[in-house]
Specification:
Blueprint (H helix, E strand, L loop, with lengths): L1 H5 L3 H11 L9 H18 L3 H12 L4
Helix pairs in contact: 3-4
């Protein structure tokens, strides 16, 4: 979503979609959501963790990725 949002125009959006077609897209599920909420509770004030980064981190942790 961040990449789509950052596209300057429809042409750039098409290029982004073509690029992302080469990757597996991991969907957010209830487990990822709960983990992201926990990360925000723990790290938003002390480390400035924002919601998008919490979702990315939670997705990585949930799927045991680096």
């Amino acid at each position: 979503m961040e990449l789509y949002f950052g596209a300057k125009n429809k042409r750039e959006l098409i290029l982004i979609k073509k690029f992302l077609a080469n990757f597996e897209i991991l969907k957010i599920n209830e487990g990822i959501t709960n983990l992201a909420v926990s990360l925000v509770e723990i790290y938003s004030k002390s480390h400035g963790l924002k919601i998008p980064d919490a979702l990315i981190g939670a997705t990585s942790i949930y799927n045991k990725l680096q």
